[in-house]
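In line with agreed milestones, the collection of sequences with tokenised folds has grown. A representative record is reproduced below.
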Amino acid sequence: MEQFENIRRDHRDEEMSIRALAVKHKVHRRTVRQALADATPPARKAPDRVAPVLGHGQR
């Protein structure tokens, strides 16, 4: 959340480009675009994993 605030502040005050913001904050340009689009980061997705069955014919 704090990182998004810093990115948005630098974009507003210093008028930095997306690429320059990405380099400065060491994040992907996609992350910079997300920060500029919305003040809150998107929710993290939990991976859908199936628990493995041990000893089920695997050798």
Q: What stands out?
A: Residues 10 and 41 are 17 Å apart (CA to CA). DSSP finds three helices and no strands in the chain. The chain has a mean pLDDT of 89. The first helix runs from residue 2 to 14.
